[in-house]
Amino acid sequence: MKKMLLALAVTGIVAGCSTQTESEKDPSLDTTDQKVSYGMGLVLGERMKNDLPDLQMEQFLQGIEHGHEGDEEVSRMSREEIQEALMAYQQQLQERQNEQQEELAQKNSEAGEAFLAENAEREGVETTDSGLQYEILEEGDGDKPGESDRVKVHYTGELLSGEVFDSSRERGEPVTFGLNQVIPGWTEGLQLMNEGSRAKLYIPSELAYGPGGNHSIGPNETLVFDVELIEVNPE
């Protein structure tokens, strides 16, 4: 909403731009005023493409023209009517985004269930009562951490598509955290590992970020982590 209101406010700056029919030649860009007018119009057009994808160009240009004239009698809408229209449009956008999120959440949920069902049949993959799946790649000989312990780990997190969304290995530095400070799939999975082990954790969405997602993680995403448990309770 703020972006849209700001964009409408900027129209006063670019109102020096004149409309033209398709049969007219391009206006000249010789003077500084002409270049600034065109440049501001171009910038506003790019912003409006993102903020208002359903922009009706004819009505938009007429609004700029009437705003530049500065005559309230020419205006076809009051400020109150403009505000009401903006609020109604914002609500439509929100409803559309919610529908898209629900569709994506359903798609991700179905993909995750199918993946986990097939993955559970692979040799070496264990499934816990919670639905977490884990696969020990390298067995360590140290102690297993408890839920209240701190751990130092290296990890790589991927989506089912194989896209890496986070990796301490890529950053070149392991991370340390408390097991009661992370997603449930990590809390449970790392307690199944001995210090020095490396494992893959296949975490269903309900043990990860659920329908809300997180940053680059979509709603109901099943996640795959390659985790190396370096040390339990590091100093």
UniProtKB/TrEMBL annotation:
Its EC number is 5.2.1.8. Belongs to the FKBP-type PPIase family. Gene3D superfamilies: 3.10.50.40, Peptidyl-prolyl cis-trans isomerase, FKBP-type, N-terminal domain. This is Peptidyl-prolyl cis-trans isomerase. InterPro entries: PPIase_dom_sf, PPIase_FKBP_dom, PPIase_FKBP_N, PPIase_FKBP_N_sf. Residues 148-233 form the PPIase FKBP-type domain. It holds the Pfam family FKBP_C. One of its GO terms (molecular function) is peptidyl-prolyl cis-trans isomerase activity. SUPFAM superfamilies: FKBP-like. Residues 79-110 form a coiled coil. GO terms for biological process: protein folding. Keywords: Coiled coil, Isomerase, Rotamase. It catalyses: [protein]-peptidylproline (omega=180) = [protein]-peptidylproline (omega=0).
